[in-house]
Design goal:
- α3 crosses α4.
- It contains 6 helices and 8 strands, in the order βββαβααβαββαβα.
- A hairpin with a 2-residue loop joins β1 and β2.
- By secondary structure, it is α/β, with parallel strands linked by helices.
- It has one domain: Alpha/Beta hydrolase fold, catalytic domain (Rossmann fold, 3-Layer(aba) Sandwich).
- The two termini are 20 Å apart.
């Protein structure tokens, strides 16, 4: 097994300096994965996920959201998130910059790039797909599904995987129905996995330490959603011949 190389760096979205964290195998990676964190920004658990993906042969980059690193105060995080969401096109453009950085650093073409996101990050990767980003796949884990800019017919190029807790109070059934209707209208290739009795934040073990009934870790949903993602990776990336690095 090849060793893992880790690097930290900065990149920009206009005037905003953002921080990036990349983990990748020392040998040529199978594909490149952009990891979009929760509303709290790039935390240690996101870096751990990048290293885990690198151990499986992927080049994985954790992107920034606000240009302020991790945010511990949830009230401040919500304020920053609402401010960023205020301009839907600017919101999408921030993460186009992250994709551009991933392309440059991983040297991967669009057919070998995926974007995965958690909570707010799940919302963001769906916005990437709605915006017509030309990448292979987006995966949303307990992400918000509503959008001010629903996809039009034929605009979505990426395949989509959504892993959703059926009891998530932040994503009520009406929002799920509206999302599925949007996917049908747009003609998207979308898979949705729904876990009964599971609430928000089910992939984060630290969720159980938070005094929020809406957020709770669920081991089975965590394992099954990871397995679904890796299965999609195998389906999309395994049969493609990696370009010669030389």
């Amino acid at each position: 097994m090849s060793s893992i190389e880790v690097q930290q760096f900065t990149y920009r979205h206009g005037d905003i300096e953002l921080s990036g964290y990349m983990a990748q195998p020392s040998r040529y990676p199978r594909a490149a994965i952009l990891i979009v964190p929760t509303i709290a920004g790039p935390t240690k658990i996101m870096f751990e996920r990048a290293r885990w993906l690198a151990s499986l042969g992927y080049s994985a980059m954790v992107c920034d959201i606000y240009g302020r690193g991790p945010i511990e105060d949830m009230r401040e995080a919500r304020r920053l998130a609402d401010e960023l969401r205020g301009d839907a096109e600017y919101y999408r453009d921030r993460f186009r910059c992250a994709l551009a950085e991933l392309r440059t650093r991983s040297k991967m073409g669009n057919d070998r790039i995926a974007a995965i996101g958690y909570c707010m990050g799940g919302e963001i990767v769906l916005e990437m797909a709605r915006g017509g980003e030309d990448i292979a796949l987006v995966v949303s884990f307990h992400g918000l599904l509503a959008t001010p800019l629903p996809a039009k017919r034929g605009t979505i190029k990426a395949r989509i995987l959504v892993c959703h807790g059926r009891a998530d109070p932040l994503v009520p059934p009406k929002q799920v129905r509206t999302f599925l209707e949007e996917m049908d209208i747009s003609g998207a290739d979308c898979h949705m996995h729904i876990y009964s009795g599971v609430v928000h934040g089910f992939t984060d073990r630290a969720s159980n330490t938070k005094s929020m009934e809406a957020v709770k870790y669920n081991g089975s949903a965590d394992r099954q959603s990871k397995a679904a993602m890796l299965s999609m990776f195998d389906e999309i990336f395994e049969n493609k011949k990696a370009p010669d690095p030389y």
